[in-house]
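Final report, closing paragraph on structural work. Over the funding period we assembled a curated collection of sequence-structure pairs, and we close with a single example.
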Amino acid sequence: MKNTTNFLIVIAGPTAVGKTDTAISVSLAFHSEILSADSRQFYKELKIGAAPPSPEQLAQVPHHFIGTKNISEYYNVSRYEQDVLKLLPELFDKSPVVIMTGGSGLYIDAVCFGIDDMPEFDPELRNILTERMNKEGVESLRMELKKLDPVTYSQIDLKNKNRIFRALEMCLLTGKPYSDFLLKTHKTRPFQIVKIALNIDRKELHNKINSRTDQMMEDGLLEEARTLIPFRHHNALKTVGYKELFDYFDGNSTLETAIELIKRNTRRYARKQISWFNRNNDYTWFTPDQISEINGFIQKEISKT
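Its predicted structure, as stored:
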């Protein structure tokens, strides 16, 4: 590859589709390194439930943003964007191609398109909102968010108290809708971006999700979740795989029910991921076994410059 232009190759797709193995194969072909764009894999305590690459996979290719944060550390998409942009020049010095892979569409978009820097919280405002939520319930915050930012309200998980809280907090802190932090005009990046998304037959994907959940339980997910009970209030643990087990620990379900809910909720999450990437026309879709076709497509895109 004689061209001097740098390329960020995005390999996205739903959970359990096979992004890690595909990214490793592509990375080996282009002598590149891998950036994780999975918002839960940042946390070192989530060794099973976040499905990070195995030690064997990590040994094949250098990975970044895997297990680099403690669960109690505050980290957000804006900081991720800044950290990636700071690291990329160093990686491009080694190779003109860098791979980014993951299923967190917001984090991928932040690197590709940009996101405004989100201000830190104001302790006084946070205390006021916390008191209000305790007295009036999350529904009060939800209704105000609907009024101040209907765009975020229509897209956010309305059952996720933390996300409702944070979105409303940003509206009140900045005086503008939380959704405005996602830039309507894209920032210019000093590198080219090639976007690939992976998918497989829905039944096959569901089977993979179910099998992976069973494997996680065999690998000790129940014990991992038990050790994380003291941290359950953190956002990273209010997600599929942990919240269902916390409900089981609370006596609200049987273990069998919790496992079935993990499978069901993971399948639902996968559908949302596919919808997210489908709405962007700049993704070219492949199946994970089309490695030669993917490599050929990337090489063709590189050759255009």
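The mean pLDDT is 92. The chain is about 50% helix and 10% strand. We thank the funder for supporting this effort.
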